[in-house]
Design a protein that fits this description.
90 residues; mainly alpha; elongated
């Protein structure tokens, strides 16, 4: 079973919290909140998204890279992770 399916409940709970943070950000903008309040909401949503990405990446690393017995498949899965890290770093 893929780690995203096994951890589905936990991951979806994180996504729902992120959705709540984004909704709070939207509301802060709608309400004309000060920029400092808006920035705090942006930072919170970004941090939550970053945490979710790290959790899924850790699962990918553990299940699809480290545990992979076939060297070619392990290298391919490591490349997938490397490309994701490159995109994330932009």
């Amino acid at each position: 079973m893929a780690h995203t399916l096994r951890d589905k409940k936990k991951l979806l709970a994180r996504v729902r919290r992120i959705a709540g943070q984004v909704a709070a950000l939207e509301q802060a903008l709608q309400d004309g909140e000060d920029c400092d309040a808006v920035l705090v909401q942006i930072a919170a949503a970004k941090g939550a998204m970053h945490g979710l990405m790290l959790e899924v990446m850790a699962g990918h690393l553990g299940e699809h890279v480290v545990a992979e017995q076939d060297a070619d498949r392990r290298a391919a899965e490591a490349e997938v992770l490397l490309e994701l890290l490159k995109r994330h770093a932009r």
